[in-house]
Specification:
Layout: E1 2-5, E2 8-11, H1 12-26, H2 36-43, E3 47-51, E4 56-58, E5 66-72, E6 74-82, E7 88-97, E8 101-102, E9 116-119, E10 123-129, H3 130-139, H4 141-172
Antiparallel strand pairs: 1-2, 3-10, 4-9, 5-8, 5-10, 6-7, 6-9
């Protein structure tokens, strides 16, 4: 059977596939508020990647132009911090789960990666490249507005979390702050 679906004719199988894609993207925080037609436009830009547990997705300081969205599984976000003895070691600053994103700062500027991200469990990632996203935003500014607004909210949450973590660390190391 054929259906009229978003200005084109699709089969039962295609309609089910499109419905599944929309349902999956609708769970993603940065796409909250997008219409089904817009979610399909976003889906056309994305690819899926399966990452085994323990694999580093990218390292702090790496370049790249990808935004990653966790479809299933979870990842650990780490930064290199200095220990009291002066050595540097990775410190976990966040754990992210299905529906959350990372690498999103690449959509805002072309700076290097600010953290290292490692898959904790086998994880399926949805990957979107910045140049393709930028083109989509130019052709559909509403998508750009909604996604950037949601990214700003997500980044604000992550910044607050990092600030709380840092405050706890500063209090813990209170005696060291005055040393030269």
């Amino acid at each position: 059977m054929l259906y009229y679906y978003y200005d084109r004719i699709v089969s039962d199988e295609d309609a089910m596939s499109n419905t599944k894609v929309i349902d999956n993207l609708r769970r993603v925080e940065i796409f909250t508020g997008l219409l089904d037609e817009e979610l399909l436009e976003v889906a056309e830009l994305c690819t899926a990647v399966r990452v085994p547990a323990g694999k580093t997705i990218f390292k702090e300081g790496d370049g790249g132009d990808e935004l990653y969205i966790i479809h299933d599984g979870n990842v650990r976000v780490m930064i290199n911090t200095r220990a009291p003895d002066g050595t540097f070691a990775p410190s976990t600053i966040n754990l992210l789960y299905s529906g959350q994103s990372f690498g999103e700062m690449i959509l805002l500027n072309n700076a290097t990666r600010s953290a290292t991200v490692v898959a904790v469990d086998p994880t399926t990632l949805i990957v979107m490249h910045e140049p393709a996203f930028r083109q989509l935003c130019e052709s559909n500014p509403r998508i750009g507005y909604v996604v950037i607004r949601n990214l700003a909210q997500d980044l604000a949450y992550k910044l607050r979390s990092s600030n709380l973590l840092l405050r706890g660390n500063i209090r813990w190391q209170q005696g060291e702050l005055g040393k030269s």
